[in-house]
Design a protein that fits this description.
about 190 residues; mainly alpha; 9 helices; about 75% helix; globular
Length: about 190
């Protein structure tokens, strides 16, 4: 559990810099350059992500449950996950879906977090998914009060919406019916 907590602190600590110290972040970018800042940021985030994933894997199943939800909640979670994949793609393939969602990756993260909190009540689960939910809500709120930066995405086009819908559905099917069980040992739609 300690590694999971350390991973959460490092990963979200790096990602919270723009939330709590935007001026410091801008001075560092100016001092070391955009490329160097992105490299340092990426390395720190990757270390945090590694600790978070390995810590979650080690903590899963070793702690007690904080809550247990009805088995039918897995269907609600499956419904919430369906748009999450498309929204995640919409953060890169900009179009009308991306424009309507404003911040599609944050919305996808919120849906992913809520879906997993609906079906996972162990301490490690609540820590992991609860932190992602709290972070994505905080970032979404903060974006209304700080200067916009240009998105790192492909140029907007009408074709991108088609890519988002078809790609999101394909990714959903792949993850829900095969990859999730292979990677995490849980078949979210097993038995359907």
């Amino acid at each position: 559990m300690d590694r999971l907590i350390l991973g959460l602190v490092v990963f979200f600590g790096v990602h919270a810099i723009s939330l709590v110290a935007l001026g410091w972040r801008d001075r560092m970018v100016e001092r070391v350059g955009t490329g160097a800042w992105r490299r340092y940021y990426s390395i720190a985030a990757a270390v945090g992500l590694y600790l978070l994933i390995s810590g979650y894997g080690a903590a899963r199943g070793t702690d007690g449950f904080l809550y247990v939800t009805p088995p039918a909640f897995r269907y609600l979670a499956a419904l919430l996950m369906l748009p999450a994949f498309a929204l995640a793609l919409a953060s890169v393939f900009r179009g009308r879906i991306s424009a309507r969602a404003k911040h599609p990756l944050l919305l996808a993260t919120m849906l992913w977090s809520v879906a997993h909190l609906l079906t996972n009540g162990a301490m490690a689960d609540v820590l992991l998914f609860g932190c992602f939910l709290a972070w994505s809500v905080a970032v979404r709120i903060s974006l209304e009060h700080r200067p916009q930066r240009p998105p790192i995405a492909l140029p907007a086009s009408a074709t991108n919406d088609l890519i988002v819908v078809i790609g999101g559905l394909a990714a959903y099917v792949l993850v829900a019916f095969w990859l999730h069980a292979r990677l995490f040992g849980v078949a979210p739609l097993g038995g359907i």
